[in-house]
Design goal:
The protein is an alpha+beta fold. The protein has two domains: 3-19 and 233-426, UDP-n-acetylglucosamine1-carboxyvinyl-transferase, Chain (Alpha-beta prism); 22-230, Alpha-beta prism (UDP-n-acetylglucosamine1-carboxyvinyl-transferase, Chain), CATH 3.65.10.10. The protein has 15 helices and 23 strands. The strands form six sheets. Strands 21-22-1-23 form a four-stranded mixed β-sheet. Helix 12 links the parallel strand 21 and strand 22. Helix 8 (235-248) runs parallel beside helix 10 (309-316) and helix 10 packs parallel to helix 12. The chain is globular, with a radius of gyration of 21 Å. One of its GO terms (cellular component) is cytoplasm. InterPro entries: Enolpyruvate_Tfrase_dom, Enolpyruvate_Tfrase_sf, MurA_subfamily, RNA3'P_cycl/enolpyr_Trfase_a/b, UDP_GlcNAc_COvinyl_MurA. Residues 6-409 form the Enolpyruvate transferase domain. Belongs to the EPSP synthase family. MurA subfamily.
């Protein structure tokens, strides 16, 4: 397992360019197998999740090449085959191959997906959508079998019981080549869904309503790529660097952002007293010495993103008074708490989904564990703020989701190194 070693106490300054959105990329790659032609992406983040998705593609005889943020995928010789369970279990978003394979072959067999341990994250809404389209879904020995070969996929009206990004995308992938019209009600509205739909529509799909709670999909017989698709900027990565800059920066420009995607987040920073200069595609974060406590509740987009709950936590340690976070999306997203307490943070969770953070002006470097991506990001921020050396173990989780984090933080003046992983092959 990789280790990230941070020698803290060095304030960040300069500029950093945000990469493509991880949460878009991990759906765009499975979506590419729906095409009858080669597919090209650019601004793809150089993260471990992309490498694992390439392993899954290879198992299906789908060639791919990835260099300098450019990802080429050729699904023209795709075959149905057993997918590598190790890669499937390493990331939750591998479940998008369910919808993509179902849309391509009218059937799919996939090992139950893994990823971050954030508590129960059922796929019942995904299955509800597949069954509404005419598929039969069974499970045996941790393997999910989805089959619609008898009659094919037929468009349907699907009302999701809860707002789910994963279910919304998976149903779109399955329905895009189905017969007739599919209507998804109570659909998720995240920017990443708009990105996926833009990619599919540019290949000839007929999808309307992305970004609203009702999405209409008229099935088409085939999809053909003609242009390179540029992945939207990663709003979670941007928010993470904004938290770093506000907590321990001397002025940081965060480039390649879409400010509209971050409004719920930036409004909380402003409420805390963080001074921001928000431009068209850049946000400048000034040094912040006096901060106010705030209350935060995570909500589906356009509310405060659960993925930014942990990255903002180290910044809240700098605020006067007591802040309260209520995570309504993943109440068990608390694996950063014990580690921050080891570093001297006054932070606790006495009820599921409730996190109390009190002013903690002095953090001390120590050995900590990154239990998942965003918890790891919180520890990186705390390590930069802390006195002495922090060793973040299980850092593979962080590398799954953060594009070239060592290079970017070094460019901002941090003293950071990574051990135990081949960065050359990870970031070609």
């Amino acid at each position: 397992m990789a280790k990230i070693i941070v020698r803290g106490g060095k304030r960040l300054h300069g500029e950093v360019t945000i990469g493509g959105a991880k949460n878009s990329t991990v759906a765009l790659i499975p979506a590419a197998i729906l095409a009858d032609t080669p597919v090209k992406f650019d601004t793809v983040p150089q993260i471990l999740d992309v490498k694992n998705l390439q392993l899954i593609l290879k198992a299906m005889n789908v060639d791919s090449s990835f260099e300098n943020g450019n990802l080429d995928i050729d699904p023209t010789h795709i075959t149905e085959s057993d997918l590598p369970s190790g890669a499937i279990k390493s990331l939750r978003a591998s479940y998008y191959f369910m919808g993509a394979l179902l849309g391509r072959f009218s059937r799919a067999t996939v090992t139950f997906p893994g990823g971050d341990n954030l508590g129960k994250r059922p796929i019942d809404q995904h299955i509800k959508g597949f069954e509404a389209l005419g598929a039969k879904v069974t499970e045996s020995d941790d393997i999910i079998h989805i089959d619609a070969t008898e009659h094919g996929l037929i468009g349907a009206r699907i009302a999701l019981d809860t707002v789910s990004v994963g279910a919304t995308i998976n149903i779109i992938l399955a329905a895009v080549r189905a017969k007739g019209q599919t209507i998804i009600e109570n659909a998720a509205r995240e920017p990443e869904i708009i990105d996926i739909v833009t990619f599919l529509n540019n290949m000839g799909a007929n999808i309307r309503g992305a970004g609203t709670d009702t999405i209409r999909i008229s099935g088409v017989p085939s999809l053909k790529a003609s242009n390179t698709h540029t992945v939207i900027p990663d709003r979670i990565e941007a928010g993470t660097y904004m938290s770093m800059a506000a907590a321990f920066g001397n002025g940081v420009a965060i480039k390649n952002v879409i400010p509209e995607h971050l409004e719920s987040y930036t409004s909380k920073l402003i409420e805390m007293g963080v001074n921001l200069d928000i431009g068209e595609d850049v946000i400048y974060v000034y040094r912040s010495d006096t901060l106010n406590s705030v209350n935060i509740k995570t909500m589906p987009y356009p509310g405060f993103a659960t993925d930014l709950q942990q990255p903002i936590t180290p910044l809240l340690l700098m605020a006067n008074g007591e802040s309260l976070i209520t995570d309504t999306i993943y109440p068990k997203r608390v694996k950063h708490i014990a580690e921050l307490r080891r570093m001297g943070g006054d932070i606790a969770s006495d009820k599921p989904g409730k996190i109390k953070i009190s002013h903690s002006p002095r953090l001390i470097g120590t050995d900590v564990e990154a239990a998942e991506i965003r918890a790891g990001a919180a520890l990186v921020i705390a390590a930069i703020m802390a006195e002495g050396v922090t060793v973040i173990n299980d850092a593979d989780h962080i590398l799954r989701g953060y594009d070239r984090i060592q290079k970017k933080l070094t460019g901002l003046g941090a003293d950071i190194s990574i051990e135990g992983i081949d960065l050359i092959n990870l970031m070609p």
